[in-house]
Design goal:
The strands form three sheets. Strands 5-4-7-8 form a four-stranded parallel beta sheet, sandwiched between helices. A two-stranded antiparallel sheet has the order 1-2. The chain folds into two domains: 3-126, no CATH class; 154-353, Uracil-DNA glycosylase-like domain (Uracil-DNA Glycosylase, subunit E, 3-Layer(aba) Sandwich). Helix 5 (108-118) crosses helix 11 (259-273). The chain is of the alpha/beta class and 365 residues long. The chain is built from 14 helices and eight strands. The radius of gyration is 21 Å and the shape is globular. Residues 164-345 form the Uracil-DNA glycosylase-like domain. Keywords: DNA damage, DNA repair, Hydrolase. InterPro entries: UDG_fam1, Uracil-DNA_glycosylase-like, Uracil-DNA_glycosylase-like_sf. This is Uracil-DNA glycosylase-like domain-containing protein.
Length: 365
């Protein structure tokens, strides 16, 4: 890579910085690895050859991050101990073109509070971990995938649907998923939810079965897997890992890119600032409902401090996930989480704030 090309990638004023997050990720494979022993960036960061190489590794170490960002980190005031916001660079909107997009980016209620998280060194590294020749491509019905194993899902325009459909000041319930569905045309940025024209997954089938058990007289099983209605009603459907690929080997890499740290930061913001403003009298004490399916989701809540929060959250835990293999083996069915969530909302905030779990409209984001 030439000196000019390398500087363009990291220079905040470069045209490269006007690209979307997906396009930034794809720069890695479009350029050869840099070879200069020393390159100086205009904003004061100095990268030697070892540090440059680490940027292209799948999992940068904390030492790599410290070497790259220590000039800023040393001048940044510390945040509360244990927070993902311990260090933050200055937020640069030109780098986060997708996040700040008014149509498909983060909802304004989220963006303001997530700027410190987006400015974390680890999140900067995250943007350079993913690459593909056709990131974010939207397939038409019946169209044959051209890059079946290498594409990253969901498409860029769907990545932040969880924030746009459930603004920070409208949250009542949080449900954590693991990662998006890894088939073309299914994932659309909401945990567990899928596009209406795709085949219903086994996971959605298990969720439908639990709804049938909890609401035997009112639930009508839909012929689609969309949960968009829940998101619009105040249910934050958040994945721990926000992207994935069809290639099984690549799927594991996505879980190691640092999305879990991003999700942890999102959950911290939910704990501190989240909640339906029409139902909460005091966000410092009034709590939300967290529906936790599986040990991985439980770990994320614990790391984010939800379990030790001063707010009176209602945490509904089940060791099983709605994936068919886990649901039958570990006891997902008959957990009554939907009923219990509404019981909490009714008791604390009134019946008008309950979620209509049976309302599953056939709509995409």
């Amino acid at each position: 890579m030439s000196r000019r090309k390398f500087d363009q990638i990291f220079d905040p004023l470069s045209d490269y910085q006007q690209l979307s997050i997906y396009e930034c990720w794809s720069l890695r494979d479009r350029q050869p690895k840099p070879t200069p022993k020393r390159s100086r960036i205009d904003d004061g960061f100095i990268f030697n050859s070892d540090t440059i190489s680490s940027i292209y590794s799948s999992s940068p170490s904390s030492n790599d991050i410290d070497r790259c960002f220590s000039p800023i980190l040393q001048s940044s005031p510390p945040s509360p101990a244990g927070s993902i916001f311990d260090f933050a660079l200055e937020f640069n909107p030109s780098f986060f073109h997708l996040e700040t997009d008014t149509q498909i980016g983060l909802h304004p209620t989220w963006l303001e509070f997530l700027k410190p998280l987006l400015s974390q060194p680890e999140i900067y590294f995250l943007h350079h971990q993913l690459s593909s020749s056709s990131l974010g491509y939207d397939y038409k019905a019946g169209e044959k995938p051209q890059h079946f194993l290498t594409e990253v899902y969901p498409p860029a325009r769907h990545l932040y649907n969880w924030s746009r459909l459930t603004p920070l000041n409208k949250i009542k319930v949080v449900i954590l998923g693991s990662m998006p569905l890894s088939c073309p045309g299914r994932a659309h940025g909401l945990a567990f939810s899928q596009s209406v024209d795709s085949q219903i997954s086994g996971t959605i089938g298990c969720i439908h079965e639990e709804l049938r058990h909890e609401y035997p007289t009112t639930f009508v099983r839909p012929n689609h897997g969309s949960l968009v209605s829940w998101a619009r009603a105040g249910v934050l459907l958040l994945n721990i890992t926000h992207t994935t690929q069809r290639d099984l080997n690549k799927q594991q890499q996505h879980s190691e890119f640092g999305w879990d740290k991003f999700t942890r930061g999102v959950l911290e913001v939910v704990d501190q600032e989240g909640g339906d403003s029409s139902m909460l009298k005091d966000k410092s004490t009034n709590g939300l409902v967290f529906i936790v399916w599986g040990k991985l989701a439980a770990k994320q809540l614990d790391l984010a401090g939800i379990t030790t929060s001063c707010r009176q959250h209602r945490i509904l835990y089940c060791p099983a996930t709605p994936q068919p293999s886990s649901a039958h083996r570990d006891g997902f069915f008959h957990n009554n989480h939907f009923l219990l969530a509404n019981d909490f909302l009714k008791e604390c905030y009134g019946s008008e704030h309950q979620i209509d779990w049976c309302n599953l409209e056939c709509i995409d984001p």
